[in-house]
Specification:
Mean pLDDT: 96
Shape: elongated
Largest sheet: 6 strands, parallel
Oligomer: single chain
Low-confidence stretches: none
Distance between the termini: 6 Å
Number of helices: 15
Number of strands: 17
Structural class: alpha/beta
Radius of gyration: 23 Å
């Protein structure tokens, strides 16, 4: 079976189309600090509006506890969406109540309304099938067809993602269809050499993706906090750097498996070691076989890959035709420990083949460090969803759209 796309829904002029987007954007004092996910929704929304559809859209934002919470309102999203679309965007102050009904009823062809945060209703994330279905039925009353365009939630069995797509004629939007196309290439037909760069804090967060991709790649680069578990597995003293002691044997297994499969596993050869976890901490570069050799001794914390490792990683990326990156190389939020992540992001922008940034912290890090999405081949809008896709897991929000 193949993914149903917008073409399968036919002529949508005059029809009410519910679009499940992913507007889960970061906010500070009620203002959006990164509108990447709002921009990512524009191609689908614009196509529907230009086709004369009456668009009803919504999303989750944050983690409200099944009830209205002003700090998680989608009002700033509706305002920003109107600016980006260059047309009025109505905003309903509830999800399935009277304000939502009035906003939907007032729509004319080519107009759009945003409903309030879906997670203000407990039915959105309910584990009980009947409760979830009941909320989906309320949403379905506002539309004739449903378009799923929030890739960041397709791994969740939630009312607006899964149940609604069963109730109404449904299809994937342009964003979801493109995400699936790109990530499928990483699994099934990567051009070689193929390099995967993994970072972030925990090995345990990446077990599934390492298991899935290790047999498929030519090079595996590991940085971030998770690297210290691998370095510990090699017998290095790592000071007070982050380590998952229960994953050391697992890391040893991956080191051995990479050797057996002929995969070049590149671990940090040096690190930026710090006296404490703070932006202004004293820091010094140390080789991996002497991480406690700085003035900080056994109290040293590894907060970034070192400059030699950054060069090794950049060279490996430059020699690759396909690159997938997920997870920062260090504590990029602190300028003193952002250079490793910057080096990886910069190398991806210079690579000649397909470069994929795996969403989540990686995308946020790249934007924070001044890189634009269009400098990469693809920036995924779903960190957890993209990882689960690459792990080969069944994603309910895709299966309901015909993907198998």
């Amino acid at each position: 079976m193949t993914l149903r796309t917008l073409d399968s829904l036919g002529d949508l002029a005059g029809k009410r189309v519910f679009v499940r987007c992913d507007f889960n954007v970061p906010l500070s004092d009620g203002r959006i600090t990164d509108d990447g996910r709002v921009r990512a929704a524009l191609p689908t929304l614009t196509a529907l509006l230009d086709a004369g559809a009456r668009v009803v859209t919504s999303s989750h934002l944050g983690r409200p506890k099944g009830a209205p919470d002003p700090q998680f309102s989608l009002a700033p999203v509706a305002e920003r969406l109107g600016e980006l679309l260059g047309r009025p965007v109505a905003f309903a102050s509830d999800t399935v109540g009277s304000a939502a009904q009035e906003a939907v009823d007032a729509l004319e062809d080519g107009q759009i309304a945003v409903l309030e945060n879906l997670r203000f209703n407990a039915g959105e994330t309910a584990k009980d099938d009947a409760e979830r279905r009941a909320f989906a039925e309320q949403l379905a009353a506002f539309a004739d067809v449903m378009v799923s365009d929030g890739f960041g939630v397709v791994h969740r069995k939630q009312a607006s993602v899964y149940d609604l797509a069963q109730i109404l004629p449904s299809a994937a939007g342009a964003l979801v269809a493109h995400e699936v196309s790109v990530l499928e290439r990483l699994l099934e037909a990567p051009e070689r050499p193929y390099t995967v760069v993994l970072g972030g804090s925990k090995v345990s967060d990446k077990l599934g993706v390492i298991d899935s991709l290790l047999p498929r790649v030519n090079k595996l680069l590991i940085g971030g906090g998770m690297a210290y578990t691998f370095l510990a597995a090699q017998g290095h003293a790592i000071g007070k750097s982050l380590v998952e002691t229960d994953q050391i044997e697992t890391a040893r297994g991956y080191i051995q498996a990479a050797e057996e499969k002929g995969v070049e596993l590149i671990l940090p050869v040096d690190s930026e070691m710090a006296a404490s976890f703070s932006a202004d901490a004293g820091h010094a570069v140390a080789p991996s076989d002497a991480l406690e050799g700085t003035e900080f001794g056994a109290d040293a914390l590894g907060l970034d890959i070192g400059p030699e490792t950054a060069r090794l990683f950049a060279d490996a990326i430059a020699s690759s035709t396909t690159v997938f990156w997920n997870g920062p190389m260090g504590v990029f939020e602190f300028p003193a420990f952002a250079e490793g992540t910057r080096a990886v992001a910069d190398a991806l922008t210079r690579a000649s083949g397909l470069t994929v940034v795996g969403g989540g912290d990686s995308a946020a890090a790249a934007r924070t460090l001044g890189f634009a999405d269009d400098q990469f081949g693809h920036v995924s809008t779903g960190g957890g969803a993209s990882l689960e896709f690459l792990e080969g897991k069944k994603l309910p929000g895709l299966e309901v759209l015909g993907w198998a």
